[in-house]
Amino acid sequence: MQEDFHYYATYCAALLAGYKHDEAMQLCYSAQLVDCCTQTMLARTGGPKAAATTQLQLELADASTDPISLQEMTRIWASFHFLPKDLYAKKKRCSLRYLNKYRLICDVNSDLLVDTVELARGESLQAAGIAMHVLADTWAHRYFAGTPSFVINNASFFHDLESGERIKFSHNPRSGDDTEKGLFTNSVYQTSENSIMNLGHGRAGHLPDYSYIRYSFMPAWGDFEVIEKDNPAEYYNAFAQMVYAMKYIRGEVETFEKEVYDTDSVEKYKELIMEILKSSPDKTADYWKRFGEKLSGREVEDFEGRKYEEEYMAADEEGKSETYLGRFFLAAMRQKSMVTSRIFGSGNILAGVSIDYDIKGFKGIRDYRHMVNEQLKKIEEAGNGIN
To answer: Is 323 part of any domain?
Structure first.
């Protein structure tokens, strides 16, 4: 998904979930910031390297494909953009190497999604925003895995289900997508198993991120059998699920369960929402923004990627955790640590090793020492009755 949904639609969902305007603005900013928090941004601000939630194309182009670099990619992309559906999935007649990658395929309503939403309950607005980004992307990015893999992520024979026409791709990122003419950009066909070209939905280009399109394709992991993707219907489900999830995070709902969507809160707006979802990609952001302003009666600021950087850089070491970015970084490390731990705990080392802090200490993971210290401080304050 892109800014139209992660920022503006998330703002609308937050309002319907009961958040006030200012809270919704902070929450949706974090949801969009997940697509901006790169190693480059962290180096510029002095933030912890472990808080990276995405990678620039230039960063990926310079990245090695050695095991350590591949694990770092997987930690980022599986944790925030391609949340695995079933870490214990079974598949006959395949190697363990293939099976480990197969188990990282993203899909909706997973146990890891429940873990992600539960992790954000009672935490910061930044944590809620990160969880909403992860939730939304499970709907857009389903059927692809957040690790470089030709045998999993290669896909072919894309067709527009509305026109019945074959979708055409080029490989020049400068040309961009022309949705009116049905021309799209995707990654170069590369048979090298761990090529960056085979990360996530690169072979599908931006098709998964467009809310208007209904398409079919043939994924390598599915033995090239046809899968149909109805993005307007699935993005509507994503929106309704976000409302439900945020009501849970706020404490209005007692439990967060899979395959539950707050259609009651959304139903009266369904016709308008579906109209927005089916609109041209160059208009959806503006339409979501107008819808949000109608709901709140307030102006929705446009996303500005460096809005909170000066506050973070000006704060002393003790105060950084209390800044907007400080809270975002802590929430991002918690999410990445949780997902990595679940993957490692399933016997899969593609996202690296999850360290037992109590036994192994903090050697080599200085950034996470700060994360855990903040959590311990919070627990201690709660125990002392400090709010």
So the answer is: yes
Q: Does some domain include residue 205?
A: no
pLDDT tens readout for residues 192-228: 999 999 999 999 999 999 999 999 999 999 888 999 9
Q: Is residue 152 part of a domain?
A: no
Q: What is the pLDDT of residue 176?
A: 81
Tokens of 155: 């896909």
Q: Nearest CA to 80 among 350, 285, 337?
A: 337
d(CA 173, CA 187): 9
In sequence order, the β-bridge partners of residue 105 are 145
- Round to whole Å and give the CA distance between 78 and 184: 25
- Reported as a single tens digit per residue, the pLDDT across 69-104 is 999 999 999 999 999 999 999 998 899 999 999 999
- State the distance between the two ends of the chain, measured CA to CA, in whole angstroms: 36
Structural domains in the chain (count): 1
Give the total residue count for the chain.
Answer: 387
For 233-289, list the strands marked E by DSSP.
none
Neighbouring CB atoms inside 10 A of 189's CB total 14
Buried b (16+ CB within 10 A) or exposed e, 59-96: ebeebeeeeebbbbbbbbbbbbbbbbbebeeeeeeeee
